[in-house]
Amino acid sequence: MFCNNCGNQISEGSKFCSGCGKQVVIINQQSSENKRIKLFEGKIYKCPNCGAHLNAFEHKCKDCGYELRGSNLDNVVKDFADKIGSTKSIEKKNELISNFYIPNTKEDIYEFFILAVSNLTTDSKCEEAWKAKVDQTYHKAKISFGNTFEFEYIDKLYKKTMNQYRSKTFKRFMNNAWRYLIGSVVTVVSLVLMIWGGFKGSESGDGDSPYYMLSTISMTIFMLGISILYWATQKKDKSKSKVKNTENEEDEEEDEE
After folding, report:
1. Residue 1 and residue 9 in contact, taking contact as beta carbons nearer than 8 Å
2. Dihedral of alpha carbons 92, 93, 94, 96, sign
3. What is the pLDDT of residue 67?
4. When comparing pLDDT for 192 and 9, which is higher?
5. Which residues form the Zinc-ribbon domain (predicted)?
6. Domain range list for the chain
7. pLDDT at 254 over 70
8. What is the reported pTM?
9. What's the gap between Cα 40 and its chain centre?
10. Residue 69 has pLDDT above 80, yes or no
11. What CA–CA distance (Å, rounded) separates 115 from 95?
12. Shortest CA distance to 105 belongs to which of 62, 81, 74, 80?
């Protein structure tokens, strides 16, 4: 250590400089490495009347009783719902839903979950995208809410919605599957009978054998089975084409606007 006045070296523990006699002033400098840095993330909501901290889902200040009638904060869920409502293109809707980042606040998670569930049960054209978001929001709510009354309600609503979704999906599958099932059974059985009848008729050596008649009838039934399969395929293709045409028309309307 050296004197600030004359530059003479000062012995450790000395209170005065031996060269000029000036009093030694020791300045304690706290290393920046020892300083604690506080980082805050997110938003802290306070009562506009008394400044007390507000918890999630509180509509009245617990300290002063002030009733919270509104908020000037941006509502990302409402903005998202408005954007989805104004978008006509199914493709763009699916893209918006898939790319939407689920908020971190409990109120927004709760609100978005209700929005996603209601659209899953009503918006069949974007069903897969809404289903994925319902699952994501449920798992995020499970972490954020913990064992609370709010999550208990979300859990019940989620299970009820998933049961309805599975039931609707199964009914939709059965509405299409029965055509393929009947067509396949008729086609396979008639093909077997047609081959068997032809073989037995040839084996009998009788040109008027009833086996030939069975083979002929089976051939007719076989063609019927093929027709059923073709009808089922065409019905599915028409349904897809109708959805695609609707999307194209909506895209054209948006471009004109």
Report:
1. yes
2. positive
3. 56
4. 192
5. 2-23
6. 43-73, 76-146, 176-238
7. no
8. 0.52
9. 29
10. no
11. 17
12. 74
Amino acid identity, residue 184? S
Task: Provide CB contacts within 8 A for 138, sequence distance 6+.
Answer: 113, 154, 155, 158
Identify the pLDDT of residue 238: 53
Q: How confident is the model at residue 31 (pLDDT cuts 50, 70, 90)?
A: very low
User: Residue 24: its pLDDT value, please?
Assistant: 67
Q: Look-up: residue for tokens 């304690």?
A: 28
The 10 Å Cβ neighbour count of residue 182 is 14
95 to 84, 89, 91, 164, 193: CA distances (angstroms): 10, 10, 6, 24, 52
Question: What tokens does 3 get?
Answer: 């004197």
Q: Is residue 68 within 8 Å of residue 59, measured between CB atoms?
A: yes
- Left, alpha or beta for 205 (phi > 0: left; psi -120 to 50: alpha)? left
The DSSP result for 36-69, as a single string, is: ------S---B-TTT--B--TT-SB-TTT--B--
Q: What residues contact residue 209 under an 8 Å CB cut-off, 6+ apart?
A: 200, 201
